[in-house]
Structure formats: structure tokens, C-alpha cells
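Researcher: Let's try something more involved. This one mixes different molecule types, so please make sure each is placed in the same coordinate frame as the others.
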Amino acid sequence: MEEQRKVNRAGVAKLLVLVLRVLVSLVFIYTGVMKVFTPVRFATDISNYHLLPWTGAAVLAFYLPWLEIVSALALWWSRLCAGASFLLLAMVLVFIAASVTARLRGIDVSCGCFGNAGRNLTFTSHLLIDLALFLVLLILSGFEIRQSRLRQAGSVTPILSC
Amino acid sequence: MTRRAARQVLLILSLALLPAVVQAVYMRNRLSWRQPATADEVSVQEAKSWGREAMWIDARPGTEYEKEHVPGALPLSTDEWDNLLPAVLNSWSPERKLVVYCSKQTCGASREVARRLREEAGLKNVFVLTGGWEAWKSSEK
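Model: All components are placed in one shared frame. Result:
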């Protein structure tokens, strides 16, 4: 009976992780691709935060979208998915911190996080989406850490883990 | 786990670098690496000299607009774009010059509103006020 319950719980966890990973991958691939096609606009968006000189913003405008795409794809590769989860988590944290500090400094910026698709979103909507992504990535990262510990202890067969 | 994840992070960072460098090289002439592509800016003095020809657009949040704004300015923030744009279009005529401002030189809202007026609303003669509302206030003293 207890064994059956464990199997059921593992099944639910497996499904949840799968759904969350699909969701996160799609969001980051979409936002990455949107920004890949408009580097000049994205550089302007980054520059508007007044955190980096223009050259830094221009470099990031080329690099960040690809980092999002590669990280999102890496979530599906067992050799890279733990690193991808942490990297995406760090990126979302940076996005949130940059948006909040800009707001606190009185800088009214277009976030730029979602390329053209996000231009009509308000600051609050951006922040809520980022926070939701942060929560999902936190769950995924926590799951990977737990699976890794269990695997090291030899007490679990990895389920969709890194 | 930590060391493995750190190695993976480094690998992903390197993998992303490849297409980014290729794209940057391919598009090197489309973007200035030294200074941003600025929107058409106009000084307070010049915009004032346009008189009634100038149409002032306030891109700051609604609360700031309600407190104080350039006389005759219409509010148009990105947060309320769909609600506020019709009033701007109703007042607009082809011979008028739109002067968009936000709170100060460092804010980005006026550039964003100016860009959207050009690209989405298809308007011409859209300018960004250098120094924003701060510059206007100083010019009134």
C-alpha cells in the first residue's frame, strides 16, 4: 500500500516537472527568438535601465537572447539541465532586480524582457510574469537538487531529473 | 552537484557565445557600438518656438500628469496606451509637431512613446524633449 502511494506520488511529480519544464522552455525560447531579431531595440531597452554603458548594452543585446534560447534547450539535455535551471533562475532574478531598481530610481522603462510581445504590458504585469517564472524555476531547481541527493544516496531511480 | 552544475553553467555560457558572436559580426553595421541610436530630440527652447504648431505629449505615469504638466499637453503613457491614444489622434493634424516628454533626461518612456507613435500610429514629426519635464520646469523659472 505504502509502496503504491510512493509510486503514485512519483508519477505526479514526474508529470508536474514535465509540464513546468515545457512551460519554461517555451517561454524562454519565445522571448529569446523575439529579441534575436531586434538587437538594436533590445540594446536600447537595456540602455534605458542606465546600469550599463551603451557598448555593454549592445553586447548584451546580442548575447542574452541566445543565452535564453540555449538555456531553454539545455533544460532537455540531461548533461546540462541542472546548469540550465540555475542559469535561467539567475537570469530571472537579474531581470526582476533590474526592473525593480529602475522603478525605484524613477526610471520609467520598457522592460524589454519579452521583445516586441511585451511592449503593451505594464510594469506590474512584467513583474508578475517574472515572479511566476522565478517560482517555477525555483521548483525545478529544488527538484533537481533533491533528485541529485537521492541519486547519490542510491535510493531513487531518476525521474526526468538531470 | 554544485561543481557539476557550475561546469554545466560554464558550458551553456560558452555555447550561447557562438551564435551571439556570429550574429554580432553579421549585423555589425546595423548597430552603433559607441553610442545609442537616438530619437529625434528637440530642446525646450526650440519646441517652445514652434508655438501652437507643437503638440505636447506627456509620457509620464497618469498620477504625475495629474499633478502638473505642460499646458495643453495630452497624457499618453505606455501603461494606458490603448485608452489614451484615441484622444491624441483626435487632436493631431499633419502639420503639427509632436513633442513627447517624460520626467527627466534619464527616463526612457518618452523615447518608447515616440517610437510607438511613429511605428504603430504611423505619425510623422515626432520629437523627444531633451531633459524632459525637468528641463521644461527649469525653463519656466
